[in-house]
Amino acid sequence: MLVETQDQRPPAIFLLGPTAAGKTDLAIALVEQLNCEIISVDSAQVYRGMDIGSAKPDAATLARAPHRLINVRDPADSYSAGDFRRDALQAMQEITAAGKTPLLVGGTSLYYQSLLAGASNLPSANPVIRQQLETELQQLGCPALHERLATIDPESAAKIAPTDPQRTLRALELFLQTGKTRTQLWQEQKQEPFAWRLLQLGLTPAKRSSLHERIEQRFLLMLEQGLIEEVEALRLRNDLSLNLASMRAVGYRQVWQYLDGDFDLTELKARGVAATRQLAKRQLTWMRSWQNLNWLQSDHPQLLAWVLEAAVAFVADEAVDDRLLALKPSLL
Fold this sequence. Notes:
This protein is 52% helix and 10% strand. By secondary structure, the chain is α/β, with parallel strands linked by helices. It has two domains: 11-120 and 190-327, P-loop containing nucleotide triphosphate hydrolases (Rossmann fold, 3-Layer(aba) Sandwich); 127-187, Histone, subunit A (Orthogonal Bundle), CATH 1.10.20. The protein has a six-stranded parallel beta sheet with strand order 3-2-4-1-5-6, sandwiched between helices. Strand 2 (36-41), helix 2 and strand 3 form a beta-alpha-beta unit.
């Protein structure tokens, strides 16, 4: 069964999807018609001052549908998957206690994995090992370290982009600290029953070309709205650099490099769109491996009606398996 019934646990809804798939619009509609409250599952929206490039909801949207776990960190500070798990569980408990349904919305796979993984056995960062790896990163570049990871832990390397230094270094650091791969450590996680029963929805346009068009249009709109000026203001702080996770976020990295004079505006547009499309591709690849995910077409005219009917039944703890299978658009 896709969703268990006769379960005494309180309900929660996951709304997953690649960037630019239309998750926010659907989430707001659910909040306005159901008794839900949104928790953001986005690794860029946690940072203050990173509004345009992270597609953070504006003030008017937040007034209609408040989001938890946005603007909870300064860009100079780190925010790990473990931090998210702690904060998200607390937020879910508060929302449930208020008689509402937690609605988790976003596309950061590591956050969802951490939330459901149970008690973590991953050690904290080791400053000595991390500094050694950071030095090698500067000398050799991220692709070379990613190749090293692929020889040690091919499963993790397949899930991490060769241009993602944060996760590449963390996976190597774990191996150097423990002698075990990141994959082994995740498999050894202490599994605990999740405290909520879940309705998990995966949202994306019916055609990949439609998603690509949405991504291009949104990145160009971000530039019109002032993304370059937003990054310029962040650079003026003098405590931020491309070594930080916040500034390596898609869009921010490319604008930073543009401001460094690495390429012109035309190239910035091309690189920003390409990087966002690559992010969406990784998100979709991960989603296809996610168990019990009900796929929905974000551009189907009956989407909201279908989701509302299924969500109402789910919150009421009625059988929704057949309902979803009958109502949802074709699987991708």
